[in-house]
Amino acid sequence: MNAMNTVARTILPFPCASNSGRRRSLRKGLLAALRVSSSPVIVDVSGCCSLNQEDIDLLLDCVAQAAGRDTQVFFVAGSLANRVLLEVTRISSVAQVFNSVTEALAYPHMSAENDAKAQTANESQERWGA
Description:
Elements: E1 4-6, E2 9-13, H1 20-36, E3 41-44, H2 53-67, E4 73-76, H3 80-88, E5 96-98, H4 101-128
Parallel strand pairs: 2-3, 3-4, 4-5
Antiparallel strand pairs: 1-2
Helix pairs in contact: 1-2
């Protein structure tokens, strides 16, 4: 399993191999990589045309792996069908889902900008007694 580190985030491809033996090996690799990562992990599902019950179970396992640690897990849906499935299964309620890896990589920066804007607004309200 190839993992690419980008600015303290790890990007892991979701295993979509058709061969069941290879798929099982890739899934074990994904969970192992998630287990040892100390940085936020982006699981890229965009390479999958569709997701089945085994895939959903694996995504839930990814969330469970991260839940007991100080690690965030994000998913890249890559398609409307995958995004809808992640919403219907409520995975999107326990992990952030993005349309692209670029969007997922930008997320913490957007969050930090939003936090800074909120902080500025609060300080302004306090200053003017609003």
